[in-house]
């Protein structure tokens, strides 16, 4: 049976289903006011106020869980600390998978799958690995009604079992490099949980590679963090900062850990993806060796790298607003929602015929489009609903639009009349070019907005006092650092901030550590994090 470890509930039973709660009238009023023109416009079209969320500025954490519920991304599972990813949330994860799968295969990796259960003795073979993961392990001690001879670990990560198999498969330099990836679930017994960000079980991809030389392994680790960086910028519109982790923050069992750090809407940092140069730590522990071209027996050099469903949480917290989710078009499951509008029965058929034509035009152009022609909800409700889901573009078609052979186009990222365009022609080439142009504009706008927010909340510091001031204001602190691990832990203890990374992009010139005054080769970024 699984070891019984108590986990603080994601959901307090006494409060009922938090994700489905209705907010108090005062909070509803505050939320309605904060939504501004977008809400007012929807109200005038007959929308109701179902699915309201807490304003971001009032309570960021409540806003985050409200958006997850209202946008139908996930719900809490029956086991404390778990979540059920709903179809719309999973579709975002699929968009991440679709991009990364192509990149993994382009760079020579193959998908495969390893068992979820790992012998505990495997975990013990690499000392720093077992020390790092021990508090988070879920163990199976009974199977088939009998106590197991050896307890099993429910996969927290796969370096150990991968090495066990690599040892069987690798014998010669001709077997190298060996480069694989798996899409899997992972179990880590987190004590502080947050949907998508930290849960007892989550989904991820984990890549594992073996190489003949340290240089090849280092090149691979850097290549994969670059893949993640490009994905974050170009598809998720999240301006991450790539860099190297400090020794204190390095993955248990790795020589070096590379990371992409993202600034969330509350200015906390999110480690959005990592790539590890494992050196020969695991190959020595497991005896993963090969005969080189000179007939010498050597241990392989390895890497591992991963992105998980926490990236979905990062997208929510980077781009969302008081109206709900806001998705970059390149990863949005629905890029365009079409809402037909009619009042009289004799208007319906002409409007739906025009809607069907527009839908076909956009689909044929490769645009992900959906029509909501349900008569059970008002157009205003639909406007609010798809705003909450973060659909980048809305098209409205009513009787007047049919007569004029045009449509009304609204941008999710620009509220109210400012983001609305009237009289956009239904002529196929004009319409397609217009919608594709708007989707590109939204993608670029979201990225630029996030860059501006990030850069305006990073403070360059030259003393420990300046760092404390920056962190107390909720900002990131960037400054020269060459102090000890003990000093790094002191900063964490006194400010709750950690070194997020040593950025790859470093300023030129001589530097002095702001903690010790000694020469420093690099600047580090400190921040509070998830």
Kindly summarize this structure in a few lines.
This protein is of the alpha+beta class and 530 residues long. Helix content is 37%, strand content 24%.
Question: What can you see in these coordinates?
Answer:
The structure is a single chain. The protein is an alpha+beta fold. It contains 15 helices and 23 strands. The chain has helices at 25-44, 60-70, 87-106, 120-124, 127-133, 159-169, 214-234, 281-286, 310-319, 345-364, 379-388, 399-404, 428-455, 464-472, 485-495; strands at residues 74-76, 83-85, 110-111, 117-119, 139-143, 146-154, 178-187, 201-211, 241-244, 256-263, 269-279, 289-291, 297-299, 301-308, 336-340, 369-371, 393-397, 406-411, 420-425, 458-460, 476-480, 498-503, 523-527. An eleven-stranded mixed sheet has the order 3-7-8-14-11-10-9-22-23-21-20, sandwiched between helices. It has a five-stranded mixed sheet with strand order 16-15-17-18-19, sandwiched between helices. Helix 1 (25-44) packs across helix 11. The two termini are 31 Å apart.
Total beta-strand segments = 23
Whole-number tally of structural domains: 3
Quick one: CATH class of the largest domain? Answer: Alpha Beta
**Shape estimate:** globular
Let me know the average pLDDT.
90
The amount of beta strand, in percent, is: 15-25%
Within CATH, the superfamily of the largest domain carries the name Bira Bifunctional Protein, Domain 2
Are there runs of 5+ residues with pLDDT below 50, and where?
Answer: 1-49
What separation lies between the terminal Cα atoms? 31 Å
- Main sheet attributes: strand count, strand direction, barrel closure: 11 strands, mixed
